[in-house]
Amino acid sequence: MTDRREFLMRAEALLGEKGLTSQPDEMAPWLTDWRGRYRGAALALASPATTEQVAGLVALCAEYRIAIVPQGGNSGMSGGATPDESGNSIVLSLRRMDRIRSLDADARMVTCDAGLILQNLHDAAAKERLRFPLTLGGKGSATIGGLISTNAGGTQVLRHGAMRAQVLGIEAVLADGQIFDALVPLKKDNRGFDLKQMLIGSEGTLGVVTGATLRLLPEIGGRTVIWAGLGSITDARKLLLHCERVAGDHLEGFEVLPAHSLAAVLDHLPDARSPLNDIYAWNALIELVAEEGQTDDLPELAERMLEAPFENGVIGDAVIAANETQAEQFWLLRDSISPAERAIGPAMQHDISVPIERMARFVEAAVPQVEARFADTTAIAFGHLGDGNVHFHVLAPGNAVAGEWEVSEGKEISAFVHDLVTEWGGSISAEHGIGQMKVGELGRLGDPVALHMMRSVKRALDPQGILNPGKLVPLAPEGSSP
């Protein structure tokens, strides 16, 4: 206890009054994950303002063997930023580190702090007639560091790739307090391992991301957004392939959602309305974009693209957004699925991927299998069909008790879904990370060689195990080599 008091005194001296608190009411919002599924305790909440303060704090934690739980916007889906219940760790929030350090419009890149909110990055890029090509429903709270640490995806992965593809350089503090500075990007650099890529997607288990250099793209001159009604997800797959052939690089997004998800959103948003008059089993949200000077061709391209699917019966009905307001309304329906379902009641959410060409068949096979095995549940899939990633949610029966159902039947459901995904050659985590939610499942289903490599890297970079313990990297089975 004396050591803890001494640690807190030295940490406060390093970070100042604004940088450290142990007050329960001030820490409370940061000790529960976004879904409310995980609640932990912490010795303190640290909020450094600079990379140097992060480095000093991490070195101090290493000296006292205090565990560190890095946290961005606390909007993650896998409990990766929530401490355990022991109260022996500190939560390291990067929310005060929210500066844009530099923005080079000619080079089309920006260097920023890890705590910068995604929406603020979008706004800063827009002022320079540029854009950052990654967006998602939580853009108002998600931070750059969190997006890097989980290798987040979003709705533009189809054309631009996940966060890994956007990172040109990175700055991070390692477990001993050293600063890894690789912010300056080089087009060609063969000096060994690409260490920044190892940190991307590591969920704070190998280092604390404090800054990044990111690529920017020219702003779009305009877009055309389409809502289409379809009879099956197989038809959606056919439509996607057709759109890719006809639209090429103009195709920016292709999302699918079933009738159940749309109905949930319409109930959740009082002013929302369905884009189509009739109800369709599946809906596709399609976005075409063009650079400045080419936008006049988009409406014609959209109409030409829809002709054949209408003629051969792939599309039942479709509407092209008449203006930007209607386009935003279409996207709001897609982005509101998760909060709408959360309002319905308990659910087990699975962020999965299978090979792109198998996704439609996987959904058609898995939905009835899950519903047949687990009585009175409803299985739905929605998301990024074009990159092989769907959110496969299983909604609890109407009489389920929140908090109890998830840890009983809910766990059985997740194991069953993950077994199916593995059989189909897929991944149990496509874009939300492993966190604490899936670490056991990764240990159960992961490739032994890959798991051995992950544990080896973790031991090498964090020998004391103080960086986000219990997340991402499964413990080695008892009796096996570590």
Structure in words:
The protein is an alpha+beta fold and 482 residues long. The chain folds into 4 domains: 2-93, Uridine Diphospho-n-acetylenolpyruvylglucosamine Reductase, domain 2, CATH 3.30.43.10; 100-218, Uridine Diphospho-n-acetylenolpyruvylglucosamine Reductase, domain 3; 222-337, Alpha-Beta Plaits, CATH 3.30.70.2190; 345-431, Alpha-Beta Plaits (2-Layer Sandwich). The protein is built from 17 helices and 18 strands. The protein has helices at residues 2-15, 24-27, 51-64, 118-127, 144-150, 157-160, 163-166, 195-199, 233-247, 259-268, 298-311, 324-335, 337-344, 359-373, 409-423, 439-445, 448-461, and strands at 20-21, 44-46, 67-71, 89-93, 100-104, 109-113, 130-131, 167-173, 179-182, 208-215, 217-218, 222-230, 251-258, 282-290, 315-320, 347-353, 378-384, 389-395. The protein has a 5-stranded antiparallel sheet. A 4-stranded mixed sheet has the order 1-2-4-3. The model has no long low-confidence stretch (mean pLDDT 94).
